Amino acid sequence: MIPHIHRRTFGSGPRTVLAIHCSLAHSGAWRGLGAALGDLATLHAFDLPCHGQSGDWDGQGIMHDAATDMALSVLADIGDGPVDVIGHSFGATVALRLAIEHPEKLRTLVMYEPVYFAPVMADDPEFRPNYIRDTAPFDAALDAGDRMGAARAFNAIWGNAAGWEGIPQVTRDYMAARIDFIRASSPFLIDDCANLLAPGRFDAARMPALLLRGAQSRWAGPVSHAIARRLPNAREVSLSGVGHMAPITHPRIVAAPLHDMLACS
C-alpha cells in the first residue's frame, strides 16, 4: 500500500519537474533550487516514505518499491505528458528507476549523485570491500542500537562541510529517527533487487540524461561513470567546490547546468 504522500511546489515556470529528495531530508530541500530556476520550471516535490509529512513505510516488501510507487502517483497527478525528473542521492535512484521502467513518462532525467552502487560494484570488484570498510562505523552503531551515533557516522560520509557539530539538534533528532531508512535502501542500492542491471534494461531510458556530481564527493565519480556508460544518452558534469549536499547547500551552482538542459530540450 502506498503511504500518504505530502507534496509541495516551488517555482512558477512552464516546465513541469518532479523533484525527489535525498535520504533523511524532506521535500523542502528543493526550495533553493526552485528559486534558482526562477520562472523556468515548477518543481513538484514530495516527501519520501518515513520523511517529512508523508506516511511511514509499513515494512512490507521492498522500501524502494514504495518510494517508486509514490513517485508514480505524483507523476500521474502533475501532467498528462512526459515531464522532467530530477533526483538527489537516494531520490536520484528513484528517478533512474522511473526512467528505465517508465521511460514514456520522462522528458529528461537529471540525477545529482545517485547512490545506486550496484553498477559500480559489478564493474569494479574493489569497490564493495572499500564501501564496507568505509561504512563500518555506521553499521556498528546501528547494530548497537545507537541511532544518533549511526546518524553521525552517516553524516560523516554524506554530510556537508559544516560537520555534525554544525547541524542543529532538531535536525540531528530528525535524522536519527529515520536512520533505519538507510539500511532499508540496501536491497535496491547494493543488491539491485529490481534487476535493472539485466541486459538491455538501461536501453529503455533514451531520454536526455544529466549526471551531476560535486568534485569534493568521495564516491560520486565511479558511481556516475558506471551509470552513465549504461545509459544511451547521458552526459556527466562535475561541479567544482561542492560536495554531496550541493542541491541544498549550493542550489545556484546546481541550477546552472540544469537550466541549460531544460532550456535546450
Q: Would you kindly provide a brief summary of this structure?
A:
The chain is α/β, with parallel strands linked by helices and 265 residues long.
The geometry reads as: globular
Structural class by secondary-structure content: alpha/beta
According to CATH, what is the topology?
Rossmann fold
Terminus-to-terminus distance: 35 Å
Count of separate structural domains: 1
Number of strands: 7
Query: What is the CATH-assigned architecture?
Result: 3-Layer(aba) Sandwich
Tally of separate helices: 13
Q: Give the full name of the CATH homologous superfamily.
A: Alpha/Beta hydrolase fold, catalytic domain
The averaged pLDDT comes out at 94
Estimated share of beta-strand residues: 15-25%
Residue runs with pLDDT of under 50 for 5 or more positions: none
- In the sheet with the most strands, the strands line up as 1-3-2-4-5-6-7
Biggest sheet character: 7 strands, mixed
Q: Helices and strands, in N-to-C order?
A: EEHEHEHEHHHHHHHEHEHH
* Rg for CA atoms: 17 Å
The CATH top-level class label: Alpha Beta
**How much helicity do the residues have?**
40-55%
Written account of the structure:
With about 260 residues, the protein is of the alpha/beta class. It has a single domain, classed as Alpha/Beta hydrolase fold, catalytic domain (Rossmann fold), CATH 3.40.50.1820. Helix content is about 45%, strand content about 15%. It has a seven-stranded mixed sheet, with helices on both faces. It is globular and about 50 Å long.
